[in-house]
# Entry
Amino acid sequence: MSVSPETLVTAARHLLLPEPRTGHTLPPGLRARAAAVLLRMALDGALDAYWLRVTPSMTRIGKHRMLCLEWYAGHDTARRCRTTWSALSAACHYRTYELPPTPVEIHARLGEVTGLLAALRPVDD
# Structure
């Protein structure tokens, strides 16, 4: 079963900005970390879809697809993608000596992932 990147972003948005009068059973740090995982999955899915369109052999190795993105999608998109993926990756990992990410931090990454999904989408969509 494959979930679209847009669906993952929507789920992350619901974690970060729950509906009013909804019971919050998860603490904010845990919701932010879960949202970071969903956003990183969305970015990975968008990158996979992008490379499947451009050159399918690039989906095999994650490091290469990030390094070569600059020549295919442009310098700005590649830089934003690397920065966002790295920040989300760091937010996903649990370390006993660090505080969890805040919802505000991850909400900023939500906007960046949304922009990257649009940049990596085919032109005719």
